[in-house]
């Protein structure tokens, strides 16, 4: 079968049909790049009187001092209204706040306008999330990103995508894949195809388009192997599962050459020296490709830095932040540079793979054997049944509802 245009390729929305919209925090102070500041913010909040709590909370239509809500699944937070809240801060948890930016979040349902409990219910060991970045005309960078921690689904360009868990149940059970798709691919390719293989392939070839994120599929086993191997390399950088930290070879590994200042104000790049400049502080070598790495048209390193330098309005809880640049942020910055540099090296391989599916007259003869969406419809894989687009019922654990009562889920 000849190549297909991207508009003829299957939609990710059909291949992984259950998706969830981004979280809507409603307020910024329960999330931040360091956990200590979150604990200080909470302590300031519970020390305040009722009028002070009202001001500090930043009430919304969804959350006030008197809103009664259930616990977040998997977390033992209090369900008494915030007007009566006391005690220490719930232990902050790691979340992905937009591309390549792991931050900390107070996992308290009373503080988050729309927390998407269905995502918290399936998060944990064995789970992976794909996050669509939304279409931005002319933008470069990946169309989807993977995360092992719960993502909030934010897009750097302000265009929300969708969050697609790889599995519909906790513990890595019940793949979130169109019914019959894995069996169809296995028969077509002559090998067992699992949900993880499909995720890896998606990371390698997915393309954003005005009509949605498209994933060209192939009927060629050799090309499939090439794509899934490449996708696993991308996944290992975006969502390392074993705690291993990526490294560049010794001569290319970034180091702090001049100490970073206690209160930096500006991030810039010296192309001649391949140096990242944090005011007078310097990190090198930093490949130009890492500095230029974008998602949805926004430079990742600049956004990461700006979020850590945002001071917050005076008197607000968001103004409680580190007085000086923490050493942990330097380590995170070095790791981010490494990840972006390694991903940039894989980008030409991904482009070569996706170009095989082009249908311009000049490349038709070399186009990869493809499985367009029409072929999936003829095979009965599409359209996807409505039940596959809804979350699965999860009845193997209790969740506390408002006032300490058990929630029915």
Q: Report the end-to-end length measured between terminal Cα atoms.
A: 46 Å
Number of strands: 20
- C-alpha geometry: globular
Characterize the largest beta sheet: strand count, sense, and whether it forms a barrel.
4 strands, antiparallel
What does this structure look like?
The chain is built from 11 helices and 20 strands. It has 409 residues and is of the alpha+beta class. It has 2 domains: 10-245 and 353-407, no CATH class; 253-352, no CATH class. A 4-stranded antiparallel beta sheet has the order 12-15-14-13, with no helix packed on it.
Relevant terms:
alpha+beta; single chain; 409 residues; 4-stranded antiparallel sheet
Compact description:
This protein is an alpha+beta fold and 409 residues long. Helices cover 29% and strands 14% of the residues.
Question: Can you lay out the helices and strands and say which pair or pack?
Answer:
Blueprint: E1 10-11, H1 12-15, E2 31-32, H2 35-47, H3 50-57, E3 93-96, E4 102-105, H4 117-122, E5 129-132, E6 144-147, E7 163-165, E8 167-169, E9 173-175, H5 181-189, H6 195-205, E10 214-215, E11 217-218, H7 221-238, E12 255-258, E13 267-270, E14 275-278, E15 281-284, H8 288-292, E16 294-295, E17 298-299, H9 300-309, H10 327-355, E18 370-371, H11 373-378, E19 399-400, E20 406-407
Antiparallel strand pairs: 1-10, 2-4, 3-4, 5-6, 5-7, 8-9, 11-18, 12-15, 13-14, 14-15, 16-17, 19-20
Helix pairs in contact: 6-7, 7-10
């Amino acid at each position: 079968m000849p190549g297909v245009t991207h508009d003829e390729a299957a939609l990710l929305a059909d291949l992984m049909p259950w998706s969830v919209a981004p979280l809507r925090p409603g307020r910024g102070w329960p999330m931040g790049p360091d956990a200590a500041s979150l604990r200080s913010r909470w302590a300031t909040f519970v020390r305040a009187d009722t009028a002070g709590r009202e001001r500090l909370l930043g009430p919304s239509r969804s959350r006030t001092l008197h809103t009664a809500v259930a616990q977040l699944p998997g977390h033992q937070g209090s369900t008494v209204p915030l007007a009566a809240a006391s005690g220490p801060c719930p232990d902050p948890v790691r979340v992905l706040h937009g591309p390549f930016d792991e931050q900390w979040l107070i996992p308290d349902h009373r503080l988050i306008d729309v927390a998407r409990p269905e995502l918290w219910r399936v998060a944990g060991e064995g789970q992976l999330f794909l996050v669509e970045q939304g279409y931005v005309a002319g933008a470069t960078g990946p169309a989807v990103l993977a995360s092992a921690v719960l993502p909030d689904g934010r897009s750097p360009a302000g265009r929300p995508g969708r969050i697609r868990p790889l599995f519909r149940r906790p513990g890595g059970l019940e793949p979130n894949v169109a019914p019959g798709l894995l069996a169809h691919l296995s028969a077509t390719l002559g090998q067992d195809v699992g949900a993880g293989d499909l995720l890896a392939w998606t990371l390698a070839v997915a393309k954003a388009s005005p009509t949605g994120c498209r994933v060209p599929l192939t009927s060629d086993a050799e090309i499939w192997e090439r794509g899934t191997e490449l996708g696993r390399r991308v996944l290992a950088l975006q969502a390392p599962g074993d705690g291993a930290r990526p490294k560049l070879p010794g001569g290319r590994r970034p180091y702090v050459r001049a100490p970073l200042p206690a209160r930096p104000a500006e991030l810039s790049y010296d192309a001649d020296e391949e140096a990242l400049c944090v005011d007078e502080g310097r990190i090198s070598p930093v490949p130009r490709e890492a500095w230029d790495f974008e998602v949805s048209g926004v430079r990742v390193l600049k956004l990461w830095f700006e979020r850590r330098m945002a001071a917050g309005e005076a008197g607000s809880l968001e103004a409680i932040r580190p007085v000086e640049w923490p050493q942990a942020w330097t380590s995170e910055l070095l790791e981010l540079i490494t990840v972006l540099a390694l991903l940039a090296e894989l980008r030409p391989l991904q482009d070569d793979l996706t170009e095989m599916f082009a249908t311009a007259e000049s490349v038709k003869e070399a186009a990869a054997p493809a499985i367009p969406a029409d072929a999936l419809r003829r095979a009965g894989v599409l359209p996807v049944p409505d039940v596959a687009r809804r979350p699965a019922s999860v009845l193997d654990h209790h969740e506390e509802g408002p006032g300490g009562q058990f929630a029915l889920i």
